[in-house]
Structure formats: structure tokens, C-alpha cells
Amino acid sequence: MATLNILVLVCLLYVAFLFVVAFGADRAARRGRGTWLRSPVVYTLSLSIYCTAWTFYGAVGSAARSGLEFLTIYLGPTLVMIGWWWTLRKMVRVGRSQRITSIADLISSRYGKSNLLAVLVTLLAVVGTTPYIALQLQSVTLSFATFAAHDAPGATLPTQQSTAFWVALGLTLFTILFGTRNLDANERHHGVVMAIAVEAVVKLAALLAVGVFVVWGLAGGIGETLDRIDASPIAAWDQSGSRWIGLTMLSAAAFLCLPRMFQVMVVENEDEDHLRTAAWAFPGYLMLMSLFVVPIAVMGLEILPSGSNPDMFVLTLPLQEGRDWLAILSFIGGFSSATSMVIVAAIAVSTMVSNHVVMPVWLWTTGGTAMMSGDVRHVALLARRLSIGGIVLLGYLYFQLSGGGTALAAIGLVSFAGVAQFLPALMGGLFWRGANRTGALAGLCVGAIVWLYCLFLPSFGPSVILPQSVFDHGPFGFDWLRPQALFGAVGMDPLVHAVMWSMMLNTVVFIVVSLVTFPRPVERLQGAQFVNVFQHSGTTPGWSGGLAQSEDLLIMSQRIMGSTQAQALFSSAARRQGLAGYLPEPTPEFLQELERELSGSVGAATAHAMISQIVGGATVSVEDLMAVADETAQIMEYSSRLEAKTQEQERTARQLREAYQKLTQLSVQKDAFLSQISHELRTPMTSIRAFSEILRDTEGLTPAEQGKYATIIHDEAIRLTRLLDDLLDLSVLENGQVVLNIHTGRLSDLLDRSVGAAGGPSDGFRIERQKSGEELWLTTDLDRLAQVFINLISNARKYCDAKAPVLSISAKREAVGLVIDFTDNGSGIPTDQQAVIFEKFSRIGHTKAGGAGLGLAICREIMARLNGEIVYLPGQSGASFRVILPPEAVSVPHTASA
Amino acid sequence: MTRDAPGPIFLERRTYRRRRMSDAARMLPLLGGALFMLPLLWGGGDAEPVRTSTVMFYLFPVWLGLAVIAVLISRHLRRVPEEEAGREGQ
């Protein structure tokens, strides 16, 4: 029992270690450190999730049963990897340029962003992945049971089901924790990838250690080992040719199509150049993985009692020989293989399920508009987490229902054949412009049906799902429809038979239907994009939008990507267009960039649909047409240049018009201000004159009357002074003559002071603050900053037109520095006015609460002197102002403050 | 002055080499496929069938050899952005 306890302890320590590795890698990546996370070695090692527990344990079992045939599972991927220049390079380039999130997304995006196709691929992926996850759970429980049986025969042990349950639960937790940190599925999961890379090293080391022990420890050297192989039951090479070729091709196809392989190979790819290293390093890894398989199988057959399970030789050989630590290492190796497969498969398939099934259904049920209330981001993350749980649960249920018998062991190749059905649509999409959506749908359906009928359903055994009579005489007595002898192909190996028919019919239907049907324009454009990705990476069908839509787009993007990310994207796009603030011109380039960013979060089809709801239909520009019709390229290029120029001129004209409007508006405001200022100056002047005349000329005034009039004169004089002070202040600030009084103080104190000075919360006006974010120390001109705060708070107090006005103040630290948002719940400032509010003399509409319109202009000048910024933040609940202080002005909380 | 002459020739040679290497990279999987299928043709006599150990002694070195050739080829295929634009993938 001692060893079993040690095993459980080591296992738990190992899992804890993986958590630490994943956490550390995530942290390092988020802080921008850790360039080693992006090395080609890590990429190569992450590809090793191809080697699951099925290969770790099963390869030896397969070798013990049928000799070298297990090698085909490794030879196929080897050929794909050394042929990277053909396919993988293109897949990775397309994946990166189109921000692809999964294989379903790639296929749907190639065929005109069709969600129907995506759903079909997702469905097939779920059906293919579930038994595979069950297989991993089985291998962990089986190896655990083997260990337990050897260590303490007859002792009461946890049942297999409970082991599987705890493993499934742990894996779900790990995957949710590190696989759904960020909504953008196209972003790298550094933690997960790092953990997988570590597991890759562990499983290789474990298998090599067992191999070295078997060859040099048990057999007594290489020569001895070879002699034993020659004397073993698998000494003769009588390989069936059809299985050898068929399995090599099947594993090559599966390597390209498995959702989890696509995830690590394309989605998690950091740099296309990493393929160069993986092209030779991964075949090397596979070779090392299979090097000792035959010796282990042969020694197992020789030493272990007959009837012992050859799938467990890797574990039982060291146990039999009393090498407990080696056995533990071997167990950890198998455990690593199983866990890394489940984690990545769950991430890959859950992305598909949530992007292509859950999100579209949710959008549809909530009215189908992209402008709905509520946080889409939250829903999408929840959908992905639930999908992960759902997929692992499905795998667990499958394991329970199938009883974990030997039927499961055959499921690996069945799964391979299922996902291989994607291959014609995938390759056709990458290399053949004529491939279209109808063809892909038809081919995929036919392939999937043949696979289900000839391989998947029969894999449960006769009379479980398909009755024995169907196997013998075909359905309804149609002899030529027997599932294992379709169209009279009698006597073939069932697997090769099913793979041949499904792939052949799939391909033929796909090609023929593509030839006789017409694609939609979007398909043709995407086709040109994918097939000629190396000639013109970049342009997809363009959008053309109007000006007022930018704010709607911002609101939508904030809900999907989170406000910080969306604002950063919008403001950087605006800066690139030479505009200030957060609302860029909705140029085709910007809309396309936005669509790609969104498709990283919710998939291409959904992102496309959401943007088209706001902007209106996609327009096909001449440039895009050019990509489709190469033959008329020259004429097209000429007209496309004209088109581009016209568009550019239109845009310039629009900008000029805007500038002109702004100037006119300013001039009107200036006139208005001049009359305003004369009025403002005259009113107090008039009353001062009038009351001073009264004081001078009227006899017999009571002291009380005298006092009253003098007070009026005094108040009016103060009002005048204040107005002149403001004007003076502004001109001093503008001329840069201001002297700053730099002090250090706490942000919360400063805000307290400002709230107090602005009148504090009263008569229904509420101020919400987040004290936790305010525990920061500022080193700047605190008085000037307070002036800005006071101005913003009293503005909100004056102008917020909500019934129950609330001003919320929040401060947070970001890359640009300290960001303090003042957001109220009123009706905000209209888009056309946002551009001028910071100008001098600007007053929105006719305000009852009279001010000279200098406050915000002064604020802007002050912030510029403090090296910061103040901007209007569109798309919030009401009027919102953002004050940005430079990072060097902010410091972490003092210990003294505690 | 003296530097001008060999410059273009050197560049020409380098891009030429690079393109031939990409040809080689395309051929390699075909070669590998053929070599991996080769043992199927080994008949052996009924009395003396081909031994598993012999096939292992053939397959593993071929495997290693393919990986080594892939190393040599991929060293020439570093991504060069300005070349990518027009010529490749055609």
C-alpha cells in the first residue's frame, strides 16, 4: 500500500507543479517577459499532444499484437511535418491573417463565413473527440488500477469510475482556469502551452527511461535485444500492405484535421518561422517515442505471464521487476499524455461549440441584434466554460456507458477516420479556388454518413446498435449496402474499407458538386484570399460605413472585447487616421481590422454578421474583385487605383468639410462669447453703477439699506473679478508661463477635497467612488489637478439631466498612466458637439446655469501642463470625461499610509 | 566601386538557392513516402520471411535521415519578407 500512497502523492505534486508552471508562464507572458515562451522548442513540444495516452500505452500493445504496424501512426505525421512547405505553412499563414480560432472557423470562413458549415464541422468534431477523451480517462484509470492491483491485491480500492470522475473534474478545472482567461480565442494560451511542453518532455523521458531499462537492464544490451526480437512471436514482417499505406495516410490526414492539433499548430502558433524548427524536430521526437516500443513489447511478451494486458506493458514491466520508481515515472508519463490531450481537445472543441453553436443561438434568441443590452463578453466566456465542462462530461459519460472495455481501445483510429472527413474541404479550400460551400457541405455530409455507418456504429460491435442481420445481409436485405462490404467490396480490412469509401465518396461529391454549382461572391473572394494567401495577405471583402456608426461600433465592441481593449483599438485606429479621441473614421481598413479582432473572440461568421448589422451590407470593392479575376488584372488595377483615389478624395473632402464646420462653429461661438462676455461684464457693471449712484445721491438711507447695497456692489465686483481671473488664468496657461507647485499627496484625499469644494453630494445628486482604486500617491501640481476635478464634478452637478443624477468616479492604472473616469448618467454630449467642448468659449446649447464656457478649456490646458490629457469618452452611460496622468506622476501606496 | 560588382550576383545566387531549397522541401515528403512504403515490396521466401528487426534497421535510419535532410533544407528557408510578396506559392 505504501507505493500506492507514494504514487498518489507524486501525482498530486506533479499536478501542483503543472499549475505553478502554467500560472508562471501566464504571468510572465502578461507582463511582457518570457521571450522563451515564444521559442520554437516550446512550439515543437506542444505539437506532441499528438502522442496521447493511446500512443503512450497503446503503441506497445499494438506492437505486441501486430508488430511494426503501430509505426504508421507516427510515419503519417512525419511526412506531413517534413512536407510543411506544402500545407502547414499555408494553413498557419491563413490562420494568422484571418484570425482563425478553430478548424470549424477556418472551413466556415473559407466558404463564405457559412455558419451551417461551421456547425456541421463542430458536430463531427464533438462526435470524434468524445470517445477519444473517454479513451484517455480509461487509460488513466486502467494504469492506476494496474498499479493498485500489483501493489495491494485484494485491498479495497476506489472504483475505476471514481478515479475517472476525479481526473475529469481536475482536468475541467485546469482547462477553465488557464484556457478561458481571455475571450480572444485567437490569443495564445501561454500557460496551457507551457504546461503541455513540460508534459511532452516528461512523457518522452518516461518512455525512454523504460526503454533503456528494458534494453540494457533486462535484455542485456542491443545485440541480445535483437536476438530476442527475432525469437519473439512478432519476429516476422508480414505486414498487410493496404493497412500500412491506409493507416499512414489516415494518420497524416488526422494530424492536419484533429481539432486539438489544429489548436496547437495553427491557433497557438506564435511565429510562422517556428515551423522551420518543428519540421525536423517533431519527426525526431516521434522517432524517439517509437524507438523502444518493439523491445518493450517483446520483453513484455517474454517475461510477463501470458494473458497480461499488453497495453500496460510499459507499466507492468518495471513493476514486475520491482522498480517502483521507474513504474511511477512511467505512470506519470502516461498521465501526462492523457491530461494534455484532454486539456487541448477541450479548449479546441469548446471554442467551436461556443462560437458556432451557443453564441449564434443566443444572439438569435435575444432578438438577433448586435446592439442588445448586457455584456456579450460575459456570455461568451460563460458559454466557453460551460462547453469545456460539457465536453469533458460527455467523455466521462461515454467512458461510463461503454464500461471502459476493450471496445474503447479501437476507438482511436475510428476517431481519426471521423475527423479526416474534413480533409477534402480543408485542402480544397486551401488549393482550389473553384471549391465552394455547397460542394463542401455535400462532401462533408456524405463522408460523415459513410463513416458513421461503416465504422463508428459497427465499432460498438454487432447487435449493439446495428443488428447482426445488417452486418450479414445489409439493411432491408440490400446486400450491396453491408456496412463492412459496401458496393460489394468484400474481404477488405474493415477500417481500410471504411476510410477508403468515406474519403473517396467525400472527395468525389465535394469536387463534382463544386463543379456544377455556383458560389456566392463572398465565397469567391474568400477563396482567392485563402488560395493566394502568399500573394496578397490582407484584403478581405471591404465594408463602407458612415460616420455616425463609429460610436455604435464602439459600444458593441466594448461589450465583446471589454472596454479597455476596445478603447485601445479604437483610439489607436483614430490616431493612425490623424484624429484625436476614440472615434475613428469607419474606413474599410478599420472595419476589416475590427472584424478580425472580433472574430478572434466570437468566430468569423458571428463577427461578420454583427458588423453587417451596424454598417449595412459588405461592399465588394474593385480591389477585391481583382483578386478574383486575375485574367483582367491590368484593367482592374487601373480602375481600382482610380477607385481608391476617389475614395481617398471623398474622405479628404469629408475631413475638410468637418474642419470647415468646426471653424464656422467656433467662429459662431466666438461671436456668441463676445456678446456673452460683454453681457456678463455689463450686467454687474450696470448694477454696480446703479447702486453706487443710489448710495451717492440718496439722502437718508438707513445703515441697513446702506449695508445691503454695498453688499450687492461687493458681490458683483467679485463676480467680475472671477470672470477676469478665469480669462487671465487661461491666457497664462496657454502662454506656458505657469509655475507648477509639485507636491505629493494621496489621490483619495485630493478627490475628497474636490468633492467638498464642488459642493459635495446633496439634493439628490449622488457621487459613487471606488475607494480601493484611489489608494495611490501622486506627485504633481495637486492644486491645479484639484481645479480640474472640481470643474468636472461641478459640471456634472450643473448639467446632468437625469432624474436621480449620479456621478461615478473610478481610477485605475493602465499602461498609459493613471486613468480617472468621471461618468454621469445623463444624456451625454451629442456626437457633433464632442469635438468642440474643449475649445474656449464653447457652451453646449443654452444653459440655464450660466458659465463663460471656459472651464473645460482651462482643464485641458492644465492637463497639458501636467503632461497628462483630458478627453471625452464616448459610448458610456452618459457624459464621461477621462483624465489621464502620466505614469511617472503615480506611485504605489506608501507604507506610511497604512 | 569594387563592392558594386559582386553584390547583385551574390543576391541573385542567394534567392536562386532559396527557391531551389523550397523545391527540395516540396520533394522531401514524396521521397519519404516512397521510402516508408518500400519494405512492403520485400517478399522474402516462405521459408525465410523478412525479419521485423531488419525492417527496424531500415526504417529508423531512414527516419533519422529524413529529419537531418529537413534540418539542412529548412536552414535555407528562413522567412524573408520582401521575397515573399511576389514569388512564392506560385
Sequence-ordered SSE layout with sheet pairings:
The complex is a heterodimer of chains A (898) and B (90).
Chain A: H1 2-30, H2 40-47, H3 53-66, H4 72-82, H5 88-97, H6 103-110, H7 115-151, H8 160-179, H9 190-219, H10 222-231, H11 241-257, H12 259-267, H13 274-291, H14 293-303, H15 313-320, H16 324-365, H17 376-402, H18 411-419, H19 423-431, H20 437-456, H21 468-473, E1 481-482, E2 485-486, H22 494-516, H23 521-531, H24 549-561, H25 563-576, H26 588-602, H27 604-615, H28 622-628, H29 633-697, H30 703-734, E3 742-746, H31 747-757, E4 766-769, E5 777-781, H32 782-799, E6 806-814, E7 817-824, H33 831-834, H34 855-865, E8 869-872, E9 880-885, E10 890-891
Parallel strand pairs in A: 4-6
Antiparallel strand pairs in A: 1-2, 3-5, 5-10, 6-7, 7-9, 8-9
Helix pairs in contact in A: 1-9, 2-9, 2-13, 3-14, 3-16, 4-11, 4-13, 6-7, 7-8, 7-15, 7-16, 7-17, 7-18, 7-20, 8-16, 8-17, 9-13, 9-14, 9-16, 10-14, 11-18, 11-22, 12-16, 14-15, 15-16, 16-17, 17-24, 18-20, 20-22, 23-28, 24-25, 26-27, 28-29, 29-30, 30-34, 31-32, 32-34
Chain B: H1 6-37, H2 52-74, H3 81-87
Helix pairs in contact in B: 1-2
Written account of the structure:
The complex is a heterodimer of chains A (898) and B (90). Chain A has four domains: 512 residues, Sodium/glucose cotransporter (Up-down Bundle); 92 residues, no CATH class; 87 residues, Helix Hairpins (Orthogonal Bundle), CATH 1.10.287.130; 150 residues, Heat Shock Protein 90, CATH 3.30.565. In chain A, 66% of the residues lie in helices and 5% in strands. Chain A contains 34 helices and ten strands. In chain A, helix 9 packs antiparallel against helix 16, helix 16 crosses helix 17 and helix 24 packs across helix 25. Chain B has a domain of 56 residues. Chain B is elongated and about 60 Å long. The relative contact order of chain B is 0.12. Chains A and B meet through helix 4, helix 10, helix 11 and helix 13 of A and helix 1, helix 2 and helix 3 of B.
